[in-house]
């Protein structure tokens, strides 16, 4: 799966305590937007190892992407099953205006 300038890749990584998401243009090797449960705006709100935290990450990432003019992305769940926190992050990003 590759991200292009027209349709960058939204990739997700999760650990036991945190979830990370970034929008990447693979042709240039650049991260265009990133968010995680370690981001101060998200971390201050509530516990970080929950589905609700993943939703906050998705909303925050979608907001950053909208500010940079990114509307369409390719979703890369990095081999994680599409349920729980990964699904919550994806749904929140869609609610925030990203299309994938």
Summary, kept brief:
The chain has 100 residues and is an alpha+beta fold.
Q: In words, what does this structure look like?
A:
Helix 2 (51-67) runs parallel beside helix 3. The chain starts with 8 loop residues before the first strand and ends in a 5-residue tail after the last helix. It has a single domain (9-95), classed as Nucleotidyltransferase, domain 5. With 100 residues, it is an alpha+beta fold. The model has no long low-confidence stretch (mean pLDDT 92). The chain contains three helices and four strands; from the N terminus they run βββααβα. A four-stranded mixed sheet has the order 3-2-1-4, with helices on one face. Strand 2 and strand 3 (30-36) form a beta hairpin. The longest helix is centred in the middle third of the chain and has 17 residues, at 51-67.
Q: Unreliable stretches, pLDDT < 50, 5 or more residues? A: none
Radius of gyration, whole Å:
12 Å
> What fraction of residues sit in β-strands?
15-25%
Supply the CATH architecture: 2-Layer Sandwich
Tally of helical segments: 3
Strand order of the largest sheet: 3-2-1-4
- H/E topology pattern: EEEHHEH
CATH level 1 name: Alpha Beta
Mean pLDDT: 92
Global structural class: alpha+beta
Secondary structure tally: strands: 4
Number of domains: 1
Straight-line distance between termini: 13 Å
> Helix coverage percent of residues?
25-40%
Looking at the structure, the CATH topology is Nucleotidyltransferase, domain 5
The backbone outline, from C-alpha atoms, is globular
| Biggest sheet details | 4 strands, mixed
């Amino acid at each position: 799966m590759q991200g292009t300038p027209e349709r960058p890749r939204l990739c997700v990584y999760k650990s036991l305590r945190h979830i990370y998401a970034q929008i990447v243009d693979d042709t240039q090797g650049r991260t265009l937007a990133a968010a995680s449960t370690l981001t101060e705006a998200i971390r201050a709100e509530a516990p970080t190892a929950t589905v609700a935290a993943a939703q906050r990450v998705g909303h925050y990432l979608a907001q950053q992407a909208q500010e940079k003019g990114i509307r369409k992305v390719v979703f890369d769940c990095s081999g994680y099953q599409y349920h729980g926190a990964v699904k919550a992050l994806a749904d929140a990003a869609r609610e925030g205006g990203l299309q994938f």
